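Box S1 | Example of a co-folding query
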Amino acid sequence: MAPETWSAYNGVVTPDSPGNDPTTKKPPQGAPASPAPSPAAPPAGAKSSPEEEASQESTIAVESAPTHRKAPAHAPPPAPAREPSARALRYREHRIPRRHRVFVNRNLKMTAIRAIGFDLDHTLAHYDPVPVEELGFDLTKRKLVEEKGYPKEVLDLKYDPEWVIRGLVVDKKRGNVLKMDYFNFVSRAYHGLTALRSDERGRAYRSDRIRLGHENYVSVDTLFHLPEVYLYVSLIDFFENRDGKKSLDYEALYKDVREMIDEAHRDGSLKSVITGNLDRYIRLDSEVRTVLEEFRRAGKKLFLLTNSEWSYTDALMRHILMKGKRAPEHWTDLFNVVIVEAAKPQFFLSNDAPAPVAELEGRTMSATVGRGGSATWLQRTLGSGGEHVLYFGDHTYGDILQSKRVANWRTAMIVPELDREITVTAEHTKEFERLARLSSERHQLEIDKAAIGRELRRLTLILSEQDGTDPVRRGEIAARIQEIPDQIASFEQRGSELEHEIGQIRLKIDRAYNPRWGSLFREGNESSRFGHQLKDFACVYTSRVSNFLHYPWNYYFQSPVGYMPHDI
Ligand SMILES: [Mg+2]
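Box S1 (continued) | Returned holo structure for magnesium ion
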């Protein structure tokens, strides 16, 4: 059996034919050995064969660098044009552990992609969530005390890493945090740290959809938002316990928290602690460099597009890309273009060219490196745009929505929370199966109840008509009519038992995802607002960029068949 390497597989995939099962093929002759795989994943990284490399023609013109350019090209070798067999790919994907899969909302042909871009924070660089969120929480509360005159007791507030999840919405006017369903109706709500009862929730939000564009609402779009929101609800709890509800201005409180956390980001206090101890705050992914190298070997142009400034970007990228054997001389060698201080989402709306990076003055870099700029400039520089660009990011609005809506890029959303959700789902397989059986029984019960109701109406009608029916038959009908109420009562009894058990199982599963908010992706039987955004804006999604190593470079990511309710 052929090894499960990306490149080995790339070399042999051909249109569907009986002899093209990749599991029976060998790597192309002359392919250099793959780098050692990580134990958690199939190995990846064998280079393209010389024949493949020689066959590629680069048709993408790169503009002169505006700032720092340019050592001889780190020219990406060409990509073979053939596409893999759909039959073979279906077979292979089932063998990829679910945690390492790429999930598809919209079909994505990797052969059509010419340039691939990456956000930095929470996309290429994965933070260890608890220490980094605690750090943001602690620095902000200290600034509130020192700069805004908040009481010293605020320093005793402790961070709870499970309290806030992405996709929630903050109602700044009322001091509430909301989870919304697919239709933007409020399904769960907390005021400060206290859950709102359903009647309180109903009074506050009635049955109206929330208009998220309104200034009262703030959406929790990135993992950086979590400590900010938890500090906000903790402060509401703190002040209301101390002073009662009437005196608190929830909007002003949110403004203070926002201002101080922004300052912690802006004045470098947060970043200097992180860069001072990268081992503590950054989770290393041993395969992230390999996936970048593989994309380059496949002939893709790579770019980094981050809102972080150069010094922070440089520190993080050195840490995640320049360790171990065969590390590049400089991490920028892996990219064609590096844009720092991009100011996304404005980046997608302007036409500016980037400015030079002061720290790099006088240095020659193999990549084009600049500050700011615009998607228009970037696409011109890459020689590719629109549907030929694939962009990886974690921010629902700044990375994914805007790049798709304005620049028409294909989008890959990084959702680190997927790992936990998939694990919880797998641990509750039995509960999900039981839930499916009980739901099916409840559905059948409704059908039976409807049938018996129809029977009762029909028999009552027959009995009421003095049409000379045989008296014996009339007696039988009357007896049957007598039995029906008991049967209906037993159906109803079973129905309420089912409701109770279904409710209990749902609660158990829900709490396993998150004790307050349930699943990040679902609410009831529908997608949550976050799940809905993910479906709408991300062409594909996965928990980390290196999961792409489990697929051939020329993979055709295909969305599952979507059924309408009337199809099922
Ligand atoms: Mg990010």
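The radius of gyration is 29 Å. Confidence is low (pLDDT under 50) at residues 1-76.
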